[in-house]
Amino acid sequence: DAGITQSPRHKVTETGTPVTLRCHQTENHRYMYWYRQDPGHGLRLIHYSYGVKDTDKGEVSDGYSVSRSKTEDFLLTLESATSSQTSVYFCAISAGTKIYEQYFGPGTRLTVT
Amino acid sequence: GQQVMQIPQYQHVQEGEDFTTYCNSSTTLSNIQWYKQRPGGHPVFLIQLVKSGEVKKQKRLTFQFGEAKKNSSLHITATQTTDVGTYFCAGQEAAGNKLTFGGGTRVLVKP
User: Fold this and answer.
1) pLDDT tens column, A20-51
2) Best exposed site among A67, A75, B1, B28 by fewest CB in 10 Å?
3) Residue range B60-80: average pLDDT?
4) Which chain A residues are within 8 Å of B48, Cβ to Cβ?
5) B101–A43 CB contact, under 8 Å
6) Which residues 6+ apart lie within 8 Å of A85 measured at CB?
């Protein structure tokens, strides 16, 4: 498996609280992605990064922000968590875009009560 | 925006039988990738198809990319219990740098 870790692996939080999820890679890959996975929706892209301090929105970015201050770390922040953000969050990395596969981290299960 | 649809959403298969899952994109794709996610696990890359009409095989799995590069299929022969999981296709448009995932086909195998 590619060197990708996510922390925390599980989190329960209350509505309205801020939450930060961390993705860490040891592969020195340029591209990093945050997805959420919900039943019936597959994997939906939240935000992605194409380099340090370079990020862009995905299809479900509302309510989320990201930061990448180092190549190896990509942070996902929920400024004020809502119950609709209860999901499994996956981080992924890739060396490039075209013809490059993505490697996924183990996931973080977030429950917002 | 681009949409990728997969059918069926669920597939119950008797061990030893064959089945096919289909993937359709609303736009022409640059390439398509397939991933497998075991229950409780994370998606794992299986294969990528780039050329129109391309067919690739991995043991009992056969992947095909449509001539128009808007659809793809995964055919599994002689299904085994190790095939249990959810199979996702993911398409990339020529002008984009993101993958759009289909909803997945969840495969359950009856021994």
Assistant:
1) 999 999 999 999 999 999 987 889 999 999 99
2) B1
3) 97
4) 99, 101
5) yes
6) A36, A63, A78, A110, A112
